[in-house]
Amino acid sequence: MSNDIQQRVVKAIAEVLERKEDEIRLDASLRDDLDFDSLKQMTLFILLEDEFQRTMPPEDLTGLVTVNDIIDFITGKLQEPAQT
Amino acid sequence: MKRRVVITGAGAVSTIGTGVDEFWRNCLEAKSAVAPIPENWDHYAALHSRIWSPLPVIDPDYLGVARTERLQLDPGSVNAIGAAREALAGAGFALVPDANNSRVFTLTGADATRIGVYLGTGIGGAYSFLHNHAHHLYQRARATLKGYAETRASAPDREMLDGVVALMAHGPRYHPFVVSMLMPNSSSAVVAIKFSITGPNTTYCVACASGTVAVGNAYRAVRDGCVDVAVSGGCEYLNDEHGHIFRGFDVAGTLIRDCADPQAANRPFDQKHSGFLFSQGGAAVLILEELEHAQRRGATIMAELIGYAETFDAHSMMSLAPGGAQIERMLRAALADAGVGVHEVDYINAHGTGTRNNDEAETEIIDRVFGKSVRVNSTKSLLGHTIGASGAFEILVTALSLRDQTTHICKNLDAPLRDLNFVRAVEPLDLRVGLSQSFAFGGHNAAVVLRRFH
Predict the structure, then answer these.
(1) Which residue from B446, B176, B196, B158 is spatially nearest to B330, judged by alpha carbons?
(2) Into which CATH architecture does domain B5-125+183-451 fall?
(3) Which residues pair with B448 in a beta bridge?
(4) A32: domain range?
(5) What's residue A3's pLDDT?
(6) CATH number at residue A39
(7) What is the model's pTM?
(8) Nearest CB to B173; choose among A16, A47, A49
């Protein structure tokens, strides 16, 4: 896992929540610890698509519970070829 | 007794400048932004008009919109927020970040329940609709074709299929917030959310008269005591990746046909006019305020709104009714509402599109109602046609002209269709009363009357 990806994911989460980056723990649950509802979750993935320039269809996102899950998911996404 | 209504703030996002100061300076210098249409639009249709007026890249600091907001809004709504932000700040309202959400502001100096938002747009979030529609139509078909082209097609077929795949361009996602992006009322809604304004909130969707109808109804709301402050104006974003919106106006024969000299092609009221200059859009916002409310705050007053009227032709969806009886009735009603006679009007900011249908009818009506001495110009001779934002830009120009006692020229006017007092030079004038009028597809007519404020 790259520190750069981790940093950018945490920054995006902080942007959505209007919180400081150091308040976002990597093992935090989006829903239970960070109070993400479905609208905030959609906003986060729009932001991550913009940040990493990869498409993230909603069906690929089920099962992502923690911040670490998202970082792993993005790491995998970035290993796929970019769509043209 | 009618309450008096004044303009205390303004904001502008336009093809010739961001912010009212730059916009107005460039108006007086007769600047325009005219460029060839995007090359890829020609891949989809044979387009007759070849030019448009594109927006510049807007400074994100001016707009004051965070990435999380921008990615969930139609560009037209983003521009409306920027213009509203400038207008509210210019009116002297302090914009205080909310304690729990720094992207949202509260206003000091006014009761938020006594502020209304009245914005006009002709096509709402058409960009967002078309952008997502392309994804909906093409994404699966394009992927299938692309896969076939890459794995199974012969070389000649591959070349042909690659061309088809390229035509099926679409954005990266079907946006989960597409409904709230495309609905026309999103512009007035997002402005009120951004600035925590909880009074009446209405979007007027009246084609080319949208901005005028919005400001006119905001004027009535302040005058009649429904609200003390109104955020009013118009916004429009006339762009899409495939040239679809441009084609709609082009195929109707409304856009400039003679594009041989692009910088001189946009010529409202000139004998060589050949249609209107399609603009990418923009936003103009005016803060209307009850006079005593404005004076108590120590606000700077730009001009006073004194009258408004609207009528409907009930004739044709696409052309003005011959004779202009309903336009004349609208003008006389607006002047009666303002309490001024026709000869007291010093300046008319005309609808002035550059189409044969408009220019011939409008010059005849101005001549008949006001005579030859009233000064006339067309802000569309500078901006092109911003459809739902146009009326708001033109009321803004009328207010600035009354404030500064001068106005911009009617650009590219060499041989006028009719002998009227068109503005040919920027010079000191004695302007007491001004009128801004708009006519719209469908048959809507509207005019706002303004007075210099002492």
Answers:
(1) B446
(2) 3-Layer(aba) Sandwich (3.40)
(3) B308, B436
(4) 3-79
(5) 87
(6) 1.10.1200.10
(7) 0.96
(8) A49
Segment-wise mean pLDDT, segments of 10 residues, chain B, 454 residues: 93 98 98 98 97 95 93 97 98 91 90 98 98 96 96 94 95 93 97 98 98 98 98 98 97 96 98 98 98 97 98 96 97 98 98 97 98 98 98 98 98 98 98 98 98 94
| pLDDT-derived band at A62, boundaries 50, 70, 90 | confident
Which residues of B fall within a CB distance of 8 Å from A53? 172
- Chain B positions in Cβ-Cβ contact with residue A61 (cut-off 8 Å): none
A80 touching chain B per CB within 8 A: no
In the structure encoding, which two tokens stand for residue B120, read together? 């006009």
| The predicted structure's pLDDT at residue B98 | 87
**From B27, B208, B259, B410, the catalytic residue:** B208
For chain A, where are the alpha helices, taking DSSP H only? 3-17, 38-52, 67-79
C-alpha distance from A27 to closest chain B C-alpha (Å): 24
**Residues 6 or more apart in contact with residue B434 via CB below 8 angstroms:** B303, B345, B346, B347, B348, B349, B398, B399, B401, B402, B449, B450, B451
Provide the residue type at B259 as one letter: C
Identify the active-site residue in B242, B244, B273, B385. B385
